[in-house]
């Protein structure tokens, strides 16, 4: 697995790459604008060119964009849904501008109106975005902790959205370890990762998992509460991370940290990136 972190774009997109390099990242995830604002400016061509140049300099080939938190693809409110669609179409355009490989999105919340309708609306939104843009990054549906009306607690549900979108070839999955743990996928313990990956394979197809979010969970197994913890400081233990980053079948896939960074100016994720990279090296020399 290639290790990276979610980096801030504050001060310009190119600065996120500088931060990633300071952290020792091999891949990078960013927001394409403020994730808590509806109105996000277009990315100027100069800004995008600068970002791409930094990426080339750093030898970083995989870029993930995490979708805005305001967008709710499963919203039962027509106005909210339309607003989300417009925002997601624009966001996809920004992903194309910076040359992103993947746009990671949450499937959304049906707000108590039932999962079946939510799945339909979520799929409809993915279809709307991919119809608008002929080409561009693959959309990755991220699994969630599955609390309340939130869709995506299982890969089975993500699979339904993907199939119903009608764009199966342009939609895959992002596997968040903390969300999976909270949703009740037994990642920890002996052989846990293998069993869970087999389960995901049966539910949705492991080959469609194109990226991982490597987060420990501050909340207990099956709690359905989404609280990330730094690697080794949550309740998952180190074993799942060791097995994931060293797994030969997942080699080359991006694994991104979304945990609390250190309160320093430079190298805010360095310790956690190094920890994960170290596990990978050890994993390789360990007989399988
Ligand atoms: Zn996410
Ligand atoms: Zn995540």
Structural notes for this entry:
β4, α4 and β5 form a beta-alpha-beta unit. This protein has an eight-stranded parallel barrel with strand order 1-2-3-4-5-6-7-10, surrounded by four helices. It has a two-stranded antiparallel sheet with strand order 8-9. α3 packs across α4 (115-132) and α4 packs across α5. The protein is α/β, with parallel strands linked by helices. It has helices at 13-23, 45-58, 78-98, 115-132, 155-165, 177-183, 192-203, 239-246, 270-285, and strands at 2-6, 27-30, 62-66, 102-105, 138-142, 171-176, 209-213, 216-217, 228-229, 254-257. One zinc ion is lined by residues 142, 176, 213, 258.
Give a short synopsis of this structure.
This protein is of the alpha/beta class and 288 residues long. It has one domain: Alpha-Beta Barrel (TIM Barrel), CATH 3.20.20.150.
């Amino acid at each position: 697995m290639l290790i990276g972190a979610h980096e801030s774009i504050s001060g310009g997109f190119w600065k996120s790459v500088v931060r990633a390099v300071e952290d020792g990242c091999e891949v990078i995830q960013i927001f394409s604008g403020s994730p808590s604002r509806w109105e996000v400016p277009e990315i100027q061509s100069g800004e995008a060119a600068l970002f791409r140049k930094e990426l080339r300099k750093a030898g970083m080939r995989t870029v993930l964009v995490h979708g805005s938190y305001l967008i709710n693809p499963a919203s039962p409110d027509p106005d909210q849904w339309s607003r989300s669609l417009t925002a997601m179409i624009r966001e996809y355009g920004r992903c194309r501008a910076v040359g992103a490989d993947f746009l990671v999105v949450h499937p959304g919340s049906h707000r108590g109106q039932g999962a079946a309708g939510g799945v339909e609306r979520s799929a409809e939104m993915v279809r709307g975005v991919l119809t608008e843009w002929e080409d561009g990054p693959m959309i990755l549906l991220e699994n969630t902790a599955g609390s309340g009306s939130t869709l995506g607690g299982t890969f089975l549900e993500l699979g339904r959205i993907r199939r119903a979108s009608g764009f199966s070839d342009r939609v895959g999955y992002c596997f968040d370890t903390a969300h999976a743990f909270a949703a009740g996928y037994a990642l920890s313990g002996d052989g846990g990762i293998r069993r869970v990956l087999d389960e995901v394979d049966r539910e949705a197809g492991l080959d469609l998992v194109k990226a991982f979010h490597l987060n420990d969970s501050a909340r207990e197994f099956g709690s359905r509460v989404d609280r990330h913890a730094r690697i080794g400081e949550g309740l998952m233990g180190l074993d799942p991370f060791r097995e994931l980053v060293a797994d030969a079948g997942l080699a080359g896939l991006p694994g991104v940290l979304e945990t609390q960074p250190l309160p320093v100016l430079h190298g805010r994720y360095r310790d956690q990136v190094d920890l994960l990279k170290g596990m990978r090296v050890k994993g390789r020399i360990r007989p399988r």
